[in-house]
Amino acid sequence: MSTQRLGFADAARGLVARDLRLALRRSGDTLQPLGFFLVVTTLFPLALDPELSRLRDIAPAALWVGALLSSLLALDRLFREDAQDGTLEQLALSGWPFAGLLLAKTAVHWLMTGLPLVVIAPLAATALGAPYAAMPGILASLLLGTVALSLIGAVGAGLTMSLSRNGSLLALLVLPLAVPVLIFGARATALAIAGEPLGGPLYLLAALAVLGATLAPWALAAAVRIGLE
Amino acid sequence: MAWVWLHRFGSPPYFYRVATLLTPWFGWAAALLCAAGLIGGLVLAPPDYQQGEGFRILYVHVPNAWLSLSTYVVMAVSAFVGLVWRINVAHAVAASCAAIGASFTAVALATGMLWGRPMWGTYWEWDPRLTSELLLLFLYLGYMGLRNAIDDTGRADRASAVLAIVGVVNVPIIHYSVIWWNSLHQAPSVMKFGKPTMATSMLVPLLLMWAGFTALFVALLLIRARGEVLRRERNARWTVDVVGATQEAA
Amino acid sequence: MLKFLEMGGYAAYVWPSYALTALVVGLNIYWARRSLREAREETRRRLSSARAKA
Fold this sequence. Notes:
The structure holds three protein chains of three kinds.
Chain A: H1 8-25, H2 27-47, H3 52-75, H4 77-84, H5 87-93, H6 98-127, H7 135-160, H8 167-194, H9 199-228
Chain B: H1 2-10, H2 12-44, H3 58-85, H4 88-120, H5 128-149, H6 153-184, H7 200-232, H8 238-243
Chain C: H1 2-6, H2 11-53
């Protein structure tokens, strides 16, 4: 047994590697929210109108509501399994900064669910009539938005992880808190589609993401510790 | 000095006794203030220049809206105190706030809609005030849902405390993002959901109603908190005197 | 008096608002007192059953 204790950076790296390996092993689970996102965004034209110029108007709404709902789907899995098999408890007792470890877990979660969504969004956006020139703006807003959503959602997941599968409670907790992200993100996307400068809402979205990254770790650590009791 | 005061209130039997003593005072104060406010608002205040007699809904809408928000703040602050200093009385206060706050939010919404119908022409407008109230209602429902879902009282207290603190930090963010969102899409013809120009004779009854509702909130809170404190003091001896359980079982 | 009740034509909005407020206030008073009463009874019951076991 090594007498040299692992530093936090190494521990975090190890955790990230483990989580990535597990997620890649179960890539089906990881791809499901993506499929859900595509299905949901497909529903809007079917419910509305195949006319692209009209779809363009609701494209921001469809993209963002789809992103919100599919990230909700993925969130349940963030802590639940590790809570059940005792891994989270070990991490809590390990002596490393728990908030930092949880932030690392959330980062991996975003890498496997939020980032793929951002990558695939241009496809959905084009299907909803967004012009090619809008793509950088759409990508940027969804990038920031999914980060913020992962952080907010992680807190909700931490609070509900020990409850029997009750997806709608998680939604009720997370969605009102996600409203600012939705408002700024959808506005940025709409401006991008219209070809107008979207710096304002984009900066606000970035501010939300930063705020989330600063405050969420505290809330995460508190919530998960309570859930582990 | 403040800590002595805080710790004294943190003592469940002390809190229970003080709450029992104070409740009737706040209750009667609420009744008198609201009666005065109603007379002033319904009878004495002159009709508004723009909104006629319809503006009188303000006298119930504004106190409810104010209460809905301040109750959430009280809930979050006492949850914070309970979480950080592990004071059960604080958790009891937070738990008591939820139902009160949610119902006042609902009434604020309903009276807002009833006020909006004659003024705007529709029962609902996505104006920032109503939209914020609606989101606040969802926050309350989420808090109550989380509390209900966790069986153990202590864990429910702590988990919902985290939620309340996260929520209260978000409330200003949500509110300003909704105002921003609304300002982008100015509805063309509808009249602004504004307060009528306030003469003193209009303002005084509003202040009376506001004070009366605040007193009512405190009274309701004290009543509920007593019960919540009892529920958290399972085996404490002081509950015997308070509850009067004296007879030996047969 | 009739003018008062009519509220300048806004009666259909003003009076239901006040009535709803009064109703919810009343309900809150009732619920709060019932919650306290139930807590007291539960405590009483638990204390006497603890006494019985002692």
